[in-house]
Amino acid sequence: MTDLKLLSLDQDDLTILSAHMQDAVFKPGDVDYAARVGIFSVAVNRFVWEKAKRKDKSFERRRAVLTMKRVQAVRSIGFDRTDKEQVLSLLALNFSKKGDGPEGTLELVCAAGATIALDVECIEVQLADTGGAWETTSRPKHPGA
Fold this sequence. Notes:
The protein is mainly beta. Helices cover 8% and strands 49% of the residues. The protein has a five-stranded antiparallel beta sheet with strand order 1-10-5-4-3, with helices on one face. The radius of gyration is 15 Å and the shape is globular. It starts with a strand and ends in a 9-residue tail after the last strand.
């Protein structure tokens, strides 16, 4: 399979990108924010939903980088940013528009109430697989799904 590369410039694109990022895991130590240039990035182990078949007994994860551009500020809640080894599980990417313009808040919503909120000028998000895949026998499960 070829590496996944996606670009999101609006809320519809972000919904698709969010589906590919669901259940990606990362640590606070994998997060980087370059305030001077307005770029926020996080290296993740992405669950490969596009290859997950219900009958398969094994599944796949891939190393990927999620990059957000035009970031003006970053806030977090629900986890200890100094604990660089804590594992966070991403559930969704949400965008809330502010006013009539393209600016708003982009949220990385994680399990257990953890959230990273980015104030952005507009939606400009890139997802790129960066490394090889490895097999996992664990398929993420969600209550009620």
